[in-house]
Write a structure and sequence with these properties.
elongated; PUM-HD domain-containing protein; mainly alpha; Leucine-rich Repeat Variant; mRNA binding; PUM3
């Protein structure tokens, strides 16, 4: 059945409707054909890195525009892109996704991509990312992978005033709740 489904579609999360993307996401997150699904991100000729990277950028940009950034297959594609893109390509992707990165902290690959965004972002882009994360600080601190993004934020953000207003104030306000969580506790210990 899987082979017939892929034969009738491009397999890419950006193609078709949101419903089709949801079906592909379910297949990716649930079944063993992950490698075949992730290969659909790449262009037709594996010997042409530039063409493949361009195709991957276009596909991922389409996914981001269609609101499928929460899907784990998109996180995997983004991680592949960040792993192989040059500095210019990485900066272009950071520009596209800086305000959406908060939506992908629930998976290992998504958190890795968010940390790479923080690492490669300009100070202005980091501030934009921080502002999108502000309403979710407590939740992020208590997430299995999200708390790692918070730790990276502490390492790379230069604006200490913004950090204390946006992040530390929220952590202090909910200190007891965060300290009771096994991942939240790591955030507090990191700050000490």
């Amino acid at each position: 059945m899987y082979g017939r489904f892929i034969a009738n579609s491009t397999g890419r999360p950006s193609s078709g409707s949101f419903m089709a993307s949801s079906i592909i996401e379910d297949a990716y997150s649930t079944y063993a054909q992950r490698a075949a699904l992730i290969q659909e991100f790449y262009g037709p000729d594996p010997n042409k890195k530039d063409a493949i990277m361009k195709h991957l950028m276009e596909t991922l940009t389409g996914c981001l525009e269609k609101g499928t950034i929460g899907f784990s297959i998109v996180h995997r594609g983004l991680l592949e892109y960040f792993s192989h893109a040059d500095a210019k390509g990485i900066q272009e992707m950071v520009d596209v996704m800086k305000e959406q990165a908060v939506e992908m902290l629930h998976t290992k690959e998504g958190a890795q991509v968010a940390m790479l965004c923080l690492l490669h972002a300009s100070p202005k882009d980091r501030k934009a990312m921080l502002k999108t994360m502000k309403p979710f600080v407590v939740k992020i601190c208590k997430e299995e992978y999200g708390h790692l993004v918070m730790l990276r934020m502490f390492d790379v953000l230069d604006d200490t005033v913004l950090m204390s207003k946006a992040i530390l104030a929220e952590i202090i306000k909910e200190m007891e709740d965060i300290a009771k969580d096994k991942f939240g506790r790591r955030v507090i210990l990191y700050l000490l």
